[in-house]
Amino acid sequence: MNSPSNEQPLQGFIAECEREALHRTRFIQPYGVLLAGEAGDARIRHLSANAADWLDGLDKSPDALLGQALPVAIPAFIQAIGEGPDAEHWMYPGADKQLLSGVCSGPQGLLNGWLSRSEHHWLLELERALPENQRLNAYRPIPHRLFRMPGSESEWTHYCQFLADTVREVTGFERVMIYRFRDDESGEVITESLIDDVEPYLGLRFPASDIPQIARELYLANSHRQIPDRTAEPVPIFSQDERLLLDLTLSDLRAVSPVHLEYLKNMGVTASLSYSIVVGERLWGLMACHHRQPRELPLPIRERCVAMCQAFSMAISGYYSTQRLLELSESEQEITQLHAALREADAAPAYGDFTQPTALGDRLLRLVNASGAALVDGEALICFGQTPPEEAIRAQVHWLITEGRERVFVTDHLPELFPPAAHHKASCSGLLAVLLSRFDVSGERVFLWWRPEQPQSVTWAGDPRKSALSDQGHSMLSPRSSFEHWVETSSGHSEPWSNRDLLRASKFRSLLLRDINADLLSL
After folding, report:
1. From CA 411, how far away is CA 249, in angstroms rounded?
2. Model confidence over 182-207: pLDDT tens digits?
3. DSSP state, 440?
4. Looking at the domain that runs over 1-23+135-234+253-327+456-490, which CATH code has it been given?
5. N or C: the chain end with fewer CB closer than 10 Å?
6. Which pTM value belongs to this model?
7. What kind of fold does domain 31-129 have according to CATH?
């Protein structure tokens, strides 16, 4: 497809989303009550306007609580904190949120508390406690199967499906999907569990603008995000001094961005619940739960799902690490054999005169599953498989060197980066190159691998070019309104190079560098 025709509105939409100070909103969702203060100060400086609906002993004007010390306003708070350092230092910055069971009672019944402490503020959020007859299920241990790290791709697929099915059973949501962020920041639904009459999203892509960076940072800071009812009226937050800005980064109750509410409406979703999947301090993806009717989950049930997602994160780390170790082991023999063939080539009077050129070519191509390969060493050039013409190869080498490209360079869309390659995209739409400086010849030794053009079709959940829509000529921007399947076909691309391919190329280069250093030391 052609490039997006509404690129400027899309860029404007993303910029507006990034400027939206989501953590500075002065509203909360109405399924709880918020009390907050400054770090190191026990006094309540901020209070949600619905306090009288949740706390005993308040008239319809809860202003009297502002300025009171929290332990005075809620006498059971210190008892709920328990003994230990937190009993005295609860208002100071702390790394972890603290669940306070049954911290007080009010018109809504028994309330649980959720205490969070940042560098500048403490937040106490109260919401309805789980009914006693539901507590047994909520506090059951998570399934042992989630602690069994998958050992193969097939086991990995079943593991993901088991998690999605289990979370849907625990939460009662109509759809649960595991959503993975790709290298280009777009998202892809890799697993889904849903009831029969819900449209499937499995395998669909969502553009990066659907979850702007500011929202991703909030997902990194919090284990989950609940929106029980997108139609509910937000509740304002009163402040003792309006000049005091409250940071709601760690808040569970924080009100929802109007842009995101519109997005959920366009998807036909009324309630959503998202869990952060963090791997190595990076947001790997999300587990997203959707429901067409309002649905509120008590905190203990949400926390049980958090524990399952944390087990999933550990499984991802373990699975990737194991696959990497297996690949290192499997590639060792191939790289060693290729290295031996290259040593023989170096010892030959001229390239092509050594005894096993076919073996060298086969090993070069197999190393990274390429269709063509070449070795350029000064004026010498030797090719294997399906390659572009010699002049095109030398032009690519010149471009790699003069442009200061990475020593291990990779792309699956070479014609976009180096337009002359478009003339030979049938053989070189993808390029993987390894560059090595040599001390005994002019120029560099360069290994090149190519893959042919492979037109790619990606099915998006709606046209990604329409991530932003102007609202009838007004300045307000809103998210796209359609999530119908939209297929994008691109040319000039090859099959993408995998992490396995990059790992092998890097290891191969390291082995060759060791040879160069050894030759230098022998002089």
Report:
1. 38
2. 887 888 999 999 999 998 999 888 88
3. S
4. 3.30.450.40
5. C
6. 0.75
7. Beta-Lactamase (3.30.450)
